Amino acid sequence: MDPVAPPGLVGFGRWAVPLLSEQLRLPRGGARLRALAALADELHRPLRATEALNAGFLQQLKVLLEDEDPLVRAKVCEILHMLAAHASGRHALLAASFLPPLSELLEDPPCRRTVYLLLSRLSLHSSGGASLLTLLPKLMKRLPEEEEEELQVLLLSLLTCCFQVDPQAALRSDAVSLLAPKLSDGALRVRKAAAAAMMALSVPMAGKLQVCEVLPAVAALLQEDDEDAQLNASGVIMFTAVTTAGKLRCLHLDVLPVLLKLVCERHDEEQIRRRRKPLVIYALRALTMLAETPEGRRLLQEQLPLLRRRSEEEEDQDIQQVLQTAVQVVTFSP
Fold first, then answer.
1. What parts of the sequence cross the membrane (predicted)?
2. Which CATH architecture has domain 1-114?
3. How many CA atoms lie within 13 A of 331 on its CB side?
4. 115, 105 Cβ separation under 8 angstroms
5. What is the rounded CA–CA span in Å between residue 150 and residue 116?
6. Cβ(320)–Cβ(311) under 8 Å?
């Protein structure tokens, strides 16, 4: 039987949630499914979501995450995802220690996609990113196993959140080697999500040195006709080019002309200029790092008129400041 709302419950107003709570205790799976479906309908109203959090529902839902019926488990995950749309819901789920049972469902195909989406919402909580670190080993384990494009992107987004909180923990888990295949295999969505995760790993010095090994794949991504791909690749290059090894590798890969082109592209629409601002700043900072080498400085000195003109025409003060720094480094005489 299809899961439909139990007759007579939805019209009970503020009594609907307590009555549905009683329905969830029934031993029959069909009755629980109908109650869960009705609850999902009720939770579209913010007031009902608050009532559910205050009605002791969470412990019932936690028990149902282990139900033998996969349809029940999947519906509970959907309801938790709805609750996590609200700040109070995210706080309540984290406080009620839902992460351990949810992590068990990462191996449950009917639930996995919703669990990824739910964890993404929980990461928005002030302590959500730090809390997700407890799941890092299981998330990393899923990385080589996940095949569906959408699920790979969701997983990489979660890993990026973890890496931003504690890149060192990820580096100790061999994250760079596990991520590397994602930079060159599969759809563009997957590759640019992998580059975002790699950028987070390249913040600490140990990460910069490890990420140098995957710069060829990053350089290839830099040339994609996609702003997010270019942004993430520029960010990786910006961080890794702090090191001598990174500078030399980037020059060998001939990324300097590509970065310069990204910096000097002009757009008349204000909306496009605002959207591209982070990309331009990342590319400029990467160029500045490369200008610290004799070869990079020589190549950029040939483009000084272009950089100076770009600086004179730039209206955005942040970009203009980074441009002026780049020009100073290029014209520096040791």
1. none
2. Alpha Horseshoe (1.25)
3. 10
4. yes
5. 10
6. yes
